[in-house]
Amino acid sequence: MTPSTINPSVSDSRNNMNMIKTLTGIATISGLLIVCAYTFTLPRIKFNKAEYLKKACFIVLPNTVRTQPYKVNPDGTITKLVTEDEKSQKVYAGYNANNELTGIAIQAQGQGFQDVIGVIYGYSPEKKAIVGFKVLASKETPGLGDKIDVDQEFLNNFKELDVKLLPDNSALAHPIEVVKKGKKVNPWQIDSITGATISSKAVGKLLDKSTSSIIPIIEKNLQQMKEEK
Amino acid sequence: MADLPHQKTTYSSMNDFIKGLWEENPVLVQVLGTCPTLAVSNSVINALAMGIATTFVLVMSSALVSLVRNIVPKQVRIATFIMIIATFVTVAEYIIQAISIEIHKALGAFIALIVVNCIILGRAEAFASKNPLMPSIMDALGNGLGFTAAIGVMGTIREILGNGSFAGIDLFGPHYEPMIIFILPSGGFFIFGFLILMYNIINQRRKAKQ
Known about the structure:
The complex is a heterodimer of chains A (229) and B (210). Chain A has 229 residues and is of the alpha+beta class. In chain A, 41% of the residues lie in helices and 23% in strands. Chain A has five helices and nine strands. Chain B has 210 residues and is mainly alpha-helical. Chain B is built from nine helices and two strands; from the N terminus they run ααααααααββα. In chain B, helix 3 (44-67) packs antiparallel against helix 8 (133-163). At the A-B interface, helix 2 of A face helix 4 and helix 5 of B.
């Protein structure tokens, strides 16, 4: 006869209390460990992310030597940002050595195959096209979906991806379209990656959504970015 | 002549470490942690980064499990182990992000998947929950490095055959037609089976010599 059958209520409840105490204790220690690790690494991670973003801006905007962040206001205007403002939607104007506007770098996110894909792309107001593209964060399947980051043929899609607007500047003249590899005929289409159709389509979709909303705003405020430098 | 107490502990602790490398290699003998072994071994850098991250989580979890082994009631031990493992995986993810965003990006989803790596829960249940701190740490270290070695070898074979490169460095030039199948899951299984076969052949010959 085990102790719990002789005296069921006492020993069982002590047992239960033990379990609750242990789980609570371990959960507390775990919580403390995680909070400590988070707090300790936060400044360093913020710094790393900012550096990474800065580097990415130069990659997606050719010939750029300097970037200037702009905050996008809810009413469609933009304001030059001089301090760190993490909460607002930002675009980064790029300038070359002669202080001329080379383009604008824009961040975008969208649901991929596994999780949200984060990218940055460069928009050239002269060419009315995307001229640079870089994946910032993705959890796509390694070896397959993560090719959106490294596959040279896929990246070639973004050397001049047409995103020109309708005459009234309200929306894209031709929505960005993802086609099977090799079937690209128009400059607003993207050749997908064999074996990574869903990730390729996800990229097309998030670029289409982002450009539809942000390019009209950029075109409206282009003069301001050219003049303010 | 009887062993002095401290000598005995050192001997068996060293043994705990070494057995994880070959005799009881977690991947090739215990056949644990096969999911990350197959999924992350398609390139050398990913494989080694995964191995090191897993070793870190393995060592820290085994240490903490061993420290609390006498106060955790049997009924909640698995829940406790999982909590501890998940905590250290989260900590490892923050550390990796703080070291290099590039590496964090390269590993992507797999850092979080270390939680479900059977090696960690397996060693916690089979060893760390029943042994003192030092042996648990040595056992974890041995298993972790054994895992890293196995996944590293797989990564090397798969990347060279399937991509013509080693650690990202192109080996054969543009005219090499890579055998993509080795990057895909089916190729992974082939190489995995091949490695276990080679291990058994080598082991049998070693035993025959002795």
